[in-house]
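Morning!

This is the sequence you dropped in the shared folder:
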Amino acid sequence: MRSFSRSSTPSLKRFARAGWGALGALLLVTQAAALSTDRDQPVNIEADRAEAGAFDRVSVYHGNAVIVQGTLRITGDTIRIYLNTDDELVKLVSVGNPASMRQLPDDSDQYQTAKADRLEYFANQDLVVLLGRATYGQGADQMSAARIVYDSHHGRLKAHSRPAAPGQEEAPEGSRIRITINPRKSSDP
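The structure's back. Tokens below.
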């Protein structure tokens, strides 16, 4: 990988345009419920440092990295974006303290949120994997677990606690899945 510098401006611009164009695919993270106008918004990236590999098709944003497109916001200490040879998003990995994502759905005024030590998005599967101290929710409804997998293509959410150690019947303290579902207001359908 090569750090961005003024001497690499022509190839940087070509690669950055291809990579940033592919970032529009990030909206597939919550495609079924995402604010439909987010796709038409520009992608803005901020970080302390950035690197791009023209041959390995990986761009890395270090130091309080933030990616914003419309209501979609992804943060992490480090964000890695993997593209295929057609400059399409393959995978995004955000690692942080914690890594986070939020997006406003079309049918709601409450953000969908996700936080974890590590957030992975697999574009070809529309799959978000939250690893380590993971939380996912919308509004006051929340789920926490050691691992949460959200399949936006099939609208399926799976949560996993840490398994019990060999010879133990229960998982370690605090490792159970926790879910909070608040009652609907009487005016809700």
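Headline: The radius of gyration is 18 Å.

More detail when I'm at my desk.
O.
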